[in-house]
User: Fold this.
Amino acid sequence: MTRFAGIEAGGTTWVVSIAEGDPSNIVERAEFPTATPQLVLAQVVAWLKPKKFDCLGIASFGPVDLDPSSPKYGYITTTPKLAWRDADVVGGVVKGLGLPPDFPVGFDTDVNAPALAEYAQAQEKGEKIGSCAYVTVGTGVGIGLVFNGEMLHGLLHGEGGHISVPPYPGEESEKMSFSLKCPKWVELESSCNSAALAKRAQCPVQGLKDLPDDHPVWDVAAHYLACMCANMILMASPEKIVLSGGVLLRKILFPKIRAKTKEYLNGYIDVPKVVTMEGLEKLIVPSDHGNRAGIIGALFLGQNELNKRKKKADAAPSAFIPLVAGVALGAALALLFARPK
Assistant:
C-alpha cells in the first residue's frame, strides 16, 4: 500500500501527516506553531524521520520559488514574515530526512495544492471538468488554479489575493489598509479577510463566528468574493470554483456570492453554469475537506510527483526498444553488405 507524507507550511501553523492508500486517508497527523524556520523544520523532520513513506508533498505559504532551475527553488522568498524570508523549506526537509536525490518530492503553494486535490477528486467522481480554482479566505486570501491536471505557474505563481476589486457601495477606499501599500488599489485580501470583516463589525476576529447570518458584514464579504469570482470567470474561465477557509465556514455566504456573481456578470458569459442559479450551485461550491484542505493538498502533491516519476520510468523502456531495434537492424544490414560478392 502506498504511503504518502505531506507538509502544510502555514503562516500560523505547520501540519505534517501520513496517509495510506489514498492521499485523503490520513492515518497520522501532528501540528507545530509557525515559530522560526530552524525550530519548525527540526520539529517536522523529527516527526517524519521514523515514518515510512513513498513520496512527500510540501504546500507552503508564499511567495515561493517554484522554478526547479533556480538556485532558490523550494525557498519562501519575499514573505512579510521576516524570519521566513529566504527560508529553504524543501532543502531543509530533504536534507534533514536524508532523502536521496531521486526521491519524489512535490512542492507548490498552499492554494495550488488544494486546487490540485479538488481537481483530482472531481475526476475520480466522474465530473467532466478540465479546470478548477481553489480559494481560501481567512487571515489572508489565496487563489490556486489547475488546468488539465497541471497547477498554474508562470512568472512565479498566482497571487490572486492582491487583485483589485470595486469597493463595496458606500465604502471609502482611502480609509482602507492594503498589503500592497497602494491607496488607489482596492485589494481583495485587505477588503474581505477576517481582520477586515471584524473591523467593520467592530468585534475581534474570534467574534465573527458569533455574528448572526443577517449581519450586514456578510453582504460586504459576498460583494468582494463575488467580484473575485466574476473576474476569475472572465479571465481564466474555471469550470469549478471551490471556496474554503475560516470565513467561508459561514454557509450563508455561498448563496449570496452566487447571486452577486450572476448580477455582476449580467448575462455576458452565456453558459448555463453562470446564467442560472442551478448552474452556479455547481460552479461555486464549498470544499468537502474543510480545514483539512491544505494538508490533503500537500499529500496530493506527493502523489502527483510519484505518478510523474512512474510515468517517466514506464516511458523509458518503450523509447529504448526502437533504439535497440534500430541498432540491430543497422548491424544486420552492415553484415549483409559486408559479405564477399
